[in-house]
Amino acid sequence: MSWEDLGNSSPDIDDDWMINASREILSWETAVGADRVAPLATLSSKLFERSVRRRDTQDLEDAICAAREAISICPLTDEHSAALLHLLASPLLRRFELAGQPADVQEALSLHRKALFLRPSGHAHRYASVLSLLHTHYCHTGEPQNSIEYSSSAREALSLFDPTRHDIPGTLTLCSATPKPATVSDTPPLPLSKAEQEWQRQKDAEGAKNSNIDTIMEMTGLEEVKAQMLRIKAKVDIIRRQGASLTGECFNIVLRGNPGAGKTTVARHYVKFLASVDLIPDDSFIETTGSRLANSSVREIKEQIEEMLENDGGAIFIDEAYQFTNGCSLNGRQVLDFLLGEMEKNDNKIVFIFAGYNRQMETFFEHNPGLISRVPYSLQFNDFNDLELLHMLEKLISKKYNGQMKVEGGVFGLYMRVAVRRLGRGRGKEGFGNARALQTVFATIFERQAMRLTEERKKGESSDDFFLAKEDIIGPNPSKAVLESVAWKKLHELVGLAEVKRSIKTLFDLIAENYKRELAEKQPIQMSLNRVFLGNPGTGKTLVAKLYGQILEDLGLLSNGEVLLKNPADFVGSAVGESERNTKAILAATAGKVLVIDEAYSLYGGGSAGGGKQRDQYRTAVIDTIVAEVQSVPGEDRCVLMCGYEQRMREMFQNVNPGLSRRFAIEDAFRFEDFSESELLEILNLKLKDQDLDATPEAKAVAIDMLSRARDRPHFGNGGEVENMLGKAKNNYQSRQSKLPASQRPLDVVFEPVDFDSNFNRAESSDTNLRKLFKDMVGCEKIVEKLQEYQNIARVTKLRGREARKARHLIPTNFVFKGPPGTGKTTTARRMGQVYYDMGFLSSTEVVECSASELVGQYVGQTGPKTRQVFERALGKVLFIDEAYRLSEGAYAKEAVDELVGILTQEAFVGKLVVVIAGYDKEMDTLLAANPGLASRFPEVIHFENMSAEHCLEILRKDLAKDDIECAALGATSSGEYRHLVSLIGQLSSLGSWGNARDMKILAQRMVRLAFKCATGDAQGSDGPKLPLSSVDAVRCVAFMFRERSGRAPKPPSSFMAKDTPLVQNLGLPTATGDAKGSIGSKPLFPGADAARCIAAMLCERGRRAPQLPSAFMPKDTLPMQNLGSSMTTAHKARVTSQTPKAATQQEEALPLPQECNPEVEEQCTTRFAVDNVRKRKEMEFESRNAEKLEEEKKEQRAQKKLKQMGLCSAGYEWVKQTGGYRCKGGSHWVSDSELGM
Fold first, then answer.
1. What are phi and psi for residue 870, nearest 5 degrees?
2. Pairing status of strand 531-535 against strand 467-468
3. Over 119-167, what HEC string results?
4. Measured between alpha carbons, how far is residue 253 from residues 340, 356, 615 in Å?
5. Mean predicted confidence (pLDDT) in 371-376
6. Domains 478-666 and 762-945 fall in the same CATH topology
7. Positive or negative: CA dihedral 1098, 1104, 1108, 1109
8. Where are the beta strands (DSSP E) in 699-772?
9. Looking at the DSSP assignment, which residues form a beta bridge with residue 532?
10. Which CATH number fits domain 678-756: 1.10.8.60, 3.30.160.70, 2.70.50.60, 3.10.20.30?
11. 194-382: which CATH architecture?
12. Per-residue DSSP letters for 686-719?
């Protein structure tokens, strides 16, 4: 074969044979000088063609070297020299496309110009040289300085154009178009994978042929899939070479991988491959899904299989096959069991192909162990890498626009690489879209281009429809785009939210920095668009979320930007697995959008290791699914915002899946602070303006004062509070206007102070209001004086232009009320709300009353939250804890005291509520001594003393007057009856059960009933004057209460009594039982002073337990105690003398000697003392057992902690207490008490 024949050989001759032959010829000794030109030209040409086909850069370099050598040998005068110049230009341009070396383009242009010079006008091949120069300019330069050469070459090409010999469309395109931008790229071509090389070897060396395998090999990526296909082919080939039968061989297969990886395409070619090698009779292909089959019946799938068998068989492709076993359908498992049997019966006729995600398909195969043997082959579809995605994107652009689309920076240039890298950051995650996600990127690029071109046309600028700019490919520069964003401007126009605006600006600065790093092809700084929004309602969280999403869309970080608002109830299911499905469905629907989860703390079901509550598994499942699905990586096309109150959100993050904190950095949360007073005023003005309303300056001041008070309440409504207040003002304004004649009603609505607060000027009359508030309380002068002092401080503070609450260091808000019962502690506390509300400290006059038991929990860990809840409920109000001394009893109560001390130092509570703890003197002193910090938290102690007898009688008189009862003795303070009552009350107050005003109210009730009982028929039926109550009846009521209270109290044995103390029974007082003469309402047995002497004698009977009655309470005619026996006996005898003989005899029989001891009384007192002793002993035993139990629990906790630290049990079994030590539940490890130091 001559050199000419070799160089012009048929293209059907294999490239590899030509390359090998050329190299062999060049190795001959005779191949020297000009004889080497032809084989070098052939070698260069064939190497270049093979490099394009195989994407082999080494072949490309060898082609360039061979062409250079040929040119160096061939003289320029040779007729083939121009062809050799063009031959070298082609691989140079190819290398430029791959490696981006501008010198290659310039050298190629120089070679074309030389070739054009060697082919002057009239040369037969000049047209080809002109066209080569045009093509190089068109595809590889696009520089303005080349436009003259391009234009002149185009005109010459048109003049040389011969329609009978030249390509019409190609020539016209080159001659009429403007130069393209340079297609520079530093992205290497996709090298042939090992599987592709092996298939090429089989084709070259063994003559293997199969168009279906060829198609699979031409697909981008999928190395493991291609390798598995060759293994299946190899198995078939070997069995056939061995002469064995393929009957019984099963070729069912499972395809695992993310969507968009080509599973369906490969499945079709796999079926065609099996049919081409006669492993199945037909390549019929039925495509269905696991969901469709699982929700149908066995009969339906049976009919489909029978129909396929009638058509000689084929393949059934079941996508998302895991839906058979995910529990979403009733028939899924039954249908799968049926298919398992059909696979075994029809293995030579029907191939079953199952597809799905990796993790779900593992669960699918766990359904039945027989599935693994019936589906022996598996194809793993790995996600495409960046280089593969880049080439796929290039093919998409080239295919859609027939190669006409020009790309700034080149189709494999920087901007295209940045776009693909952004997409690739989601690689490896379940659900990564691969080719489908690439289609989304492709669509986004051309949407941006369309918007850009539209804007350019609006401005009258020239535009190129076949040009993709940098902004089209990777989006706008964030630092510039944010300034043009309407949503960004609206965000900065919002009132307040300074911290939120700073946080968002910091985030966007980081986004802009990452944009620069991407252009420098550096890894972006890790960040997440997902955020936590913390704040009270009405602070603008939802509005900011919408603007935030819109800004992200404007910056190109989200494909949609729409905001979807969801509540925890939308996620939580009512059955096992339902919460996961709901959560996944919501997250899937929010791709490219902003998902706002309001009140997200409700996803925490509660419960903790130390508490008794169990966690809600359905809510926990939602959190776990969010952690699994939301990766918070750069480039993730979704933004999830969790909103809620800070305290509850932090509690949730501390107690749920730790991965949630990594997805949502709560430390970097956007904090929506409550609006300040100036910001609230600005909001009020905006709302008034929007609604065409107005208010006087005074009215606005009142409104802001009310809002300022309301801020102390938990979960202050902020902007919503302003709207609610306006609604109330509108109603008040309308009510006020409705009282005017229609003609006097103005059209413009201008609110007055009274519209916002009907008692807006209460501070001006605070002194008067305070006196009115306490006017019905007797003996409270000192308390009123102290409160007046506080009010004066608040008034002066306001006059000086400051808020009254700024003087809280001068006006205490924590009080201790100490004193005996009935002295007005509760009543005073209830009125403290109005007092502090008038001073401007509180947002409500309400008083939250609770007992110590409402603060104390029933198990460890419950008391703290329970106490905090009570304090949160009382924010902006008065919290009154009655009988607070009970907080010093028990371990759980101590926890409540510790929590209370901590709360009173927290900014959220200090000065925002008034706390009053009340109780008896001694017990309250014990409580304050129990915790050193408690006394410092309650510096203000108000003592409530026992009321004087006169004050008690004044309370009695007022209570009787409320029911229109009049007792002359109570009004005549100088009368003997009044003095007798004073004496009786004084002696009654000496008893331990004395209740001061409380007992006076009981007395008043009894006296009212007695007055109604003694009223005449006329008085009962009229609305006339007040009902009278005689002084005698009043004294009898008091005497009866004294006897009743004395009878309740335990009486000491006779050894405790004074020898000369006469017994009460001997003094003739009426008894609780007996005839009417001894009951209330009968005539008194003793008049006036005799009653006082009787009560004084009772005091002597109580001995040491009752203090001596002060002389001021004794009537003037009361004898000294030592003379009381004889005096009372004389008085009694005089009384008996005046009675009937029978009555006198009965009383004399009932009268024991004064010194004689009553055995029944002594026995009762002894029994009561014994019962008390038993009760006290049991209480001490109970407390001792509790202390021992707590100590055992602490000891067990220390032991378990030390066992865990020792790490002896590698399996992690729990340790169980046994005699002498601990053993793990696995039974293999033992630790003695001595080893634990116990």
1. -65, -45
2. unpaired
3. CCCCCCCHHHHHHHHHHHHHHHCCCHHHHHHHHHHHHHHHHHCCCCCCC
4. 13, 12, 42
5. 88
6. yes
7. negative
8. 750-751
9. 642
10. 1.10.8.60
11. 3-Layer(aba) Sandwich (3.40)
12. HHHHHTT-EE-HHHHHHHHHHHHHHTTSTT--TH
pLDDT of residue 636: 74
39: number of CA atoms within 13 Å, CB side?
21
Helix (H) or strand (E) holding 892: helix 891-903
- Tell me which residue has tokens 């340790």: 1215
**Crossing angle of helices 126-140/102-118, nearest 10°?**
160
Please, which residues have CB within 8 angstroms of residue 668's CB and are 6 or more apart in sequence?
A: 503, 531, 532
Phi-psi region at 1141: left, alpha or beta (left = phi > 0; alpha = psi -120 to 50): alpha
Which backbone phi and psi does 919 adopt, to 5 degrees? 175, -175
- Beta strand residue intervals within 976-1074, DSSP E: 1027-1029
Please tell me the predicted confidence (pLDDT) of residue 165.
60
Q: What pLDDT, on a 0 to 100 scale, did the predictor assign at position 11?
A: 42
- Is 15-160 assigned to CATH 1.25.40.10? yes
Token reading at 911 = 């000065």
pTM score of the predicted model: 0.57
CA distance 988 to 1039: 9
DSSP string, 663-687: HS-GGG-EEEPPPPHHHHHHHHHHH
Burial class (CB in 10 A: 0-12, 13-18, 19+), 1085: buried
Summarised one tens digit per residue, pLDDT across range 676-721 is 888 889 999 999 998 999 999 999 988 988 888 887 777 788 888 8
Provide the residue ranges of all domains of the chain, joining segments of one domain with +: 15-160, 194-382, 392-474, 478-666, 678-756, 762-945
Q: Is 357 or 1115 the better-scoring residue by pLDDT?
A: 357
CA 798 centroid distance within chain: 41
940-974 pLDDT per residue, tens: 899 888 888 888 888 888 888 888 888 888 888 88
Mean pLDDT of 575-600: 89
Q: Which helix (H) or strand (E) holds 1224?
A: strand 1221-1224
Q: Which residues, including other chains, have CB under 8 Å from residue 613's CB and lie 6 or more apart?
A: 606, 607
Quick check: 777 pLDDT over 70? yes
- b/e sequence 1040-1069, b meaning 16+ C-beta within 10 Å: bbbbebbeeeebbebeebeeebbbbebbbb
Strand runs (DSSP E) across 29-130, as ranges? none
* Dist. CA 444–CA 449, nearest whole Å: 9
**CATH number, domain 762-945:** 3.40.50.300
Sheet with 1215-1218, side-by-side order of all strands: 1215-1218, 1221-1224, 1230-1232
Provide DSSP, 1193-1211. HHHHHHHHHHHHHHT--TT
pLDDT digit string (tens) for 23-45? 888 888 677 778 888 889 999 99
**Tokens, residue 198:** 């092996």
Cβ–Cβ < 8 Å for 421, 387: no
d(CA 946, CA 997): 9
Contacts of 458 (CB under 8 A, 6+ apart): none
* Long-range Cβ contact pairs of 676-680 (< 8 A, separation 24 or more): 676/496, 677/704, 677/707, 677/708, 679/495, 679/496, 680/704, 680/707, 680/708, 680/718, 680/722
CA distances from 499 to 496, 668, 669, 670, 675 (A): 9, 11, 10, 7, 12
Residue 240 contacts by C-beta under 8 Å, 6 or more apart in sequence?
A: 246
CATH 3.30.830.10 fits 478-666, yes or no: no
User: CA-CA-CA-CA torsion for 1018, 1022, 1027, 1030, nearest 10 degrees?
Assistant: 0
- b/e per residue 1171-1208 (b: at least 16 CB within 10 A): eeeeeeeeeeeeeeeeeeeeeeeeeeeebeebbeeeee
- Return d(Cα 806, Cα 827) in angstroms, integer: 28
